[in-house]
Amino acid sequence: MAADSRQSKSSSQSPDTSDPSASGKTYDTFNYPASAENINSLNANSNNARGQPTNAGLTDGLKSIKLGDFKEVHKKPCTREGFLAGIAAGFGIGGIRAILGAPIFTACSWAVGAFTFGSFVMHEYCQQQRRIEKAGIQRINAALDEKKIEIEKKREEKRKARRKAKEEADR
Questions:
Q1: Which residues pair with 47 in a beta bridge?
Q2: CB pairs under 8 A, 24+ apart, for 33-40?
Q3: How far apart are CA 23 and CA 97, in angstroms?
Q4: How does residue 59 score in pLDDT terms, banded at 50, 70 and 90?
């Protein structure tokens, strides 16, 4: 019978195993070997001919900034939480200063300062929580690896015992 034409060709093919995130398991992302492009990027700040580091200046840094970076800033980890906390802090502090009778320019200055400080603090807090969570996942993965090795040793011992028993029974 003919194949179903409604199925896309990509769904009939095997999934791409070159991307650790394709499996959906966090465990795989920690134990996945670095790809060739990532290995080369480790030495990106060195002159490969001489092996000496190059001096990157302010202009080199500014050249690396693209408009797309600003269009996708909300996709970076912890920036959403940081911006929301900064907006709340700026609105709260600036509003309170305005209500208490401070000049508008002063209240706005306080609001901008509170936004900046609140965003920075919340972003750093979120990053710290992510580091703690990642360390915990790595500990769990290490324990899982040890457990897998232990289970494999037990299986191997059982296999050897069964083989030995079978050989004795065959004699």
A1: 52
A2: none
A3: 52
A4: confident
